[in-house]
TrEMBL record:
Record's GO cellular component terms: cytosol
InterPro entries: MbtH-like_dom, MbtH-like_sf, MLP_fam
Source organism, top-level taxon: Bacteria
Organism field: Cupriavidus plantarum
Protein name: MbtH protein
Stretches assigned to the MbtH-like domain: 1-51
Cited PANTHER family: ENTEROBACTIN BIOSYNTHESIS PROTEIN YBDZ (PTHR38444)
Pfam (any one): MbtH
TM helices/strands, residue ranges: none
A biological process term (GO) from this entry: siderophore biosynthetic process
Amino acid sequence: MSIDSDTIDFHVVINDEQQYSIWPAYRPVPAGWNTVGVTAPRAQCLAYIEAHWTDMRPASLRAQMDAAASSH
């Protein structure tokens, strides 16, 4: 079974840096990633990510940039 198959379900997953990805539902989610509660075909998962991941910067970089901006 190919992980890019359109016939299997995927989980939408997120890591501590608030970066999104998809993971095949039939495989255990890797360490450091958590599901966000969406399990669906690939296209639906990607649409969810597109709608919700609006800032591609890692969370640590956003925090660092926000701190630098507020100190000026």
